[in-house]
Structures are given as C-alpha cells and as structure tokens.
Amino acid sequence: MQRFAPAPQQTRCSGCGLPLATAGDAAKPPRCGACLRRPPPWQHCHVWVDYGYPWADIITRWKLQQHPALAAHIARWVLSSPPLAAALQQADVLLPLPLSPQRLRERGFNQAAQLARYWAQHFARQPGSPGPRWRSDILLRPQHTAAQRSLGRSARLRNLHAAFAVAPEAQLADLHLLVIDDVITTGATLRAACAALRAAGAQHISVLALARTP
Ligand SMILES: [Zn+2]
Fold it and tell me: Per DSSP, what are the bridge partners of residue 178?
C-alpha cells in the first residue's frame, strides 16, 4: 500500500471537482463555466483524485469486493493532501452520504461512514483543535431507490429527489457541514442530498469525495 506515491495536486473546479487548466487563486476558489452558470447547492467540492488507475481499482475492491480494512489506508492518503486535510479539519460535522437500508444490508458497511469516522477520530487526537464530529443520524436515506443506471435522466432526478431526508430535530443553520462521498459521477446524488440539507436549514455545506469521474 505504501508504494503508491501521493496523488498529484491538481487545480479543480470548486463546483464540480473537475480538473481545470488554470491555476487556482487561494482567495477565490476557481469555477468552471458550467458551475458559474448553474451553481451547485454547496460552497466547495473537494476532490482527491480522478477516478482512474490505480485508485478506481482500490475503491472497487474496498467497497464492492468486501475489503472494509482498506478504508484506513485510503483515509490516510487523503489526509496527506493539505487542502483536503484543511477542509476536513475546518468542518464542524462530517456527514457521510447514506446508503439505503437495502444497500447497507447488501454491502455490510457504508464506505463514506468509514472515512468520516476515521477522520473524526484522527482530528480528535490532534492537540489544540476540536476537529469535526461525524454524524450518521442527520442526513438519512430512508427508502431504497431503483438503481440509477437503469433510469433515464428525468427519472433519475425524480428518483433521487425522494431519496434523502434530514432528521427533523437537526439544528443545521450555524454548522459547517461537509458531506462525504466516495466517487462523484454526475453529482446528481450529492445535489439531491445537499438540497435536502438546504431545505432543512443548512447554510454552510461543502462536499468531499475521494474521486471524480473525469
Ligand atoms: Zn465546475
């Protein structure tokens, strides 16, 4: 596991996480044209790597071939990226993107929750900073939805819109929330989750994903 070099730092759009040709400005995170025209429901999308070799193989093995122990390696690699470590440390609450109850039974673990727990425990051990908490009881996915790839675009969006719920007693307005996902493909799932958080009063939402399909 240690033979892989850290992933290269790449300038990415702060909206969709896709690579950008121009260098970023620390004071003003860059946005691609598409995200300027149609801003996503989050402030910043943090992405570690493009979804490709060798990361795609490792992520697949971790979550689909039942190797939950890979989570700690992957979580440590992400912490070796200074901007991602800063985004995690500055969040108040890490919210793993939930699986439906049926998917959770099939897989046996929620890969995003494994990461969130690792990172919260990591920062809790650092002196001087409270670091983020992680909560799996705020952003909820109460019902199973049809597999997205079997549906057309408009059916996908309807399917997703009903998928997420937020705990009714959650007080989110003053918290910096960081939603944790493993792979962003279209971003539709994260948009639906963040729209549910916004509807529940959240005002500061960013997202962090391991990988982005280029
Ligand atoms: Zn973008």
Answer: 94, 206
Q: Tell how far the Cα of 85 is from the centroid of ligand 1, in angstroms.
A: 21
CA 77 to chain CA centroid, nearest Å: 15
What spacing in Å lies between the alpha carbon of 62 and ligand 1's midpoint? 28
Q: Distance between terminal CA atoms of the chain?
A: 24
Q: Tell me how far the alpha carbon of residue 26 lies from the centroid of ligand 1, in angstroms.
A: 16
Ligand 1 mean position to 169 CA, how many Å? 33
In angstroms, the CA 58 to CA 68 distance is 11
The arithmetic mean of pLDDT across residues 140-164, rounded, is 71
Q: Look at residue 76 in the predicted model and tell me its pLDDT.
A: 95
What's the CATH number for 38-212? 3.40.50
pLDDT of residue 2: 47
| Domain ranges within the chain, ordered by starting residue | 38-212
The CA 70 to ligand 1 mean position distance, Å, reads 29
Is residue 167 scored above 50 in pLDDT? yes
Cα 12 to middle of ligand 1, angstroms? 8
The predicted model scores a pTM of: 0.90
pLDDT class for 213, splitting at 50, 70, 90?
very high
